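thread from #wetlab-drylab

HS: before we spend reagent money on co-crystallization trials with flavin-adenine dinucleotide, can we at least see a predicted complex? here's what I'd submit
DV: go for it
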Amino acid sequence: MKIAIIGAGIGGLAAAFDLRRAGNEVTIFESADYVGGLASGFKEPHWDWSVEKFYHHWFQSDQSILGLIHELGWEDMVHFPRPYTVLLHQGKWYPFDSIWKALLFPGLGFGFIKIRFGCVGLYLRLTNNWKALEKYTADEWMRRWAGSQVYEKMWKPLLVGKFGPYYDKVNMAWMWARLKARSTRLGTFEGGFQRFADMFAQVLREQGVEIRLNAQVKSIHLVAGSGLVIDTGKSEIFERVLVTTSPALLAKLCPDLPDTYLKGLLELKSMGAVVMILSLKRQLSEQGYYWFNLPKEAGYPFLALVEHTNFVPARNFGGDHIVYAGDYLEVGHEYFSMGDEELLARFTPALKKFNPAFERDWVRKVWVFKTNYAQPVPLVNHSQHIPAIKTPIDGLFFASMSQVYPWDRGTNFAVVIGRKAASLMR
Ligand SMILES: Cc1cc2nc3c(=O)[nH]c(=O)nc-3n(C[C@H](O)[C@H](O)[C@H](O)COP(=O)(O)OP(=O)(O)OC[C@H]3O[C@@H](n4cnc5c(N)ncnc54)[C@H](O)[C@@H]3O)c2cc1C
């Protein structure tokens, strides 16, 4: 069969792998001039590794992407260091990335509150009944079962940070999935995620997949009896097409979709993200902390401060210390229209809170990356609103971050949904 895939992100590449092995003629259309999509990275001339544009790591539970890497024979290139995630309490940072660390965290109180916190954590780790949980918002469920103090201190800041105005509308199955599928060890690919994407794309090319970069698809139309016509400036016909973009973009690319499916796509909510990357002359967190969770009400201009080189050694970046300052935001937030210098002026004063010695002249270089589609927002009973992978248009398939629910988006689930779509397309 002649198959087109729109998007060379991890989902599109994973789908191409299976479709090609099944004997199909596969062409990937990618609007950017690189592969990897949201997991892509970039490299300065004096760096050995690339840096992801949006902070990325794997969990030990990410069996689908780790399984794919195993199939490709590259498991020796995956490393799982043990970086430190910390949470703020009364102006001090405390390690907070395991049940044991959480039990010692003073911000949640002790005694009955901690026992209740532990029981709720254990229940969520053990239960598989996420369908029962999706009927409730995380806000109401956590308040009720974990108690207001724990909710306000821990879970509410996480929800507010990730979902902004939707924080009290996100369902409890999202929170369940987050607690279920996480590990304290975090993984990365030797050389960075971009290296993985480039190596994967190279394998696909060697197997006969055509990957066209700078190839933006403008529309997809069904021509009865012929197949699906893809327009990139020139028109080409395919028997099957897999779209791996955002739901909103699919709706725009393919207005022939029936109204109910289109409406379903357009009703899905998501958050965008703005991430600033700074290369510094010196280490910011001298304690060696990797991930700082920042409650919005503490007044930081961003949600997370991530010192990448407290996870991957600075020697891989020519001695530069790499720091991310990022936030999930609604599209239309002022950060989306601010220039890099303006954002830098907004963000840098906060860096002193992580190291009082920080000075503006530590900053060697700054990059800012923005995306409108960073984090799907799963509302109550979300399982009833997920668009089908097989769309109502014959031969047209859709696989995106919005369909991996109840799991949270991630490259692991991009592999899952990409491979699932491939199995439905054969
Ligand atoms: C801030 C942030 C942090 C994250 N952290 C992690 C993490 O720690 N670990 C993890 O595993 N995952 C993380 N993720 C999620 C992960 O990046 C995604 O789940 C995954 O990369 C999605 O892959 P995809 O193939 O589904 O989509 P995408 O990567 O979005 O790929 C879609 C591709 O389609 C292309 N495209 C769009 N329109 C067109 C068009 N018209 N024509 C042709 N091509 C087009 C795009 O350029 C893109 O390359 C994070 C994401 C963000 C935003």
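DV: The first strand starts at residue 2 and ends at 6.
HS: ok that's useful, forwarding to the group
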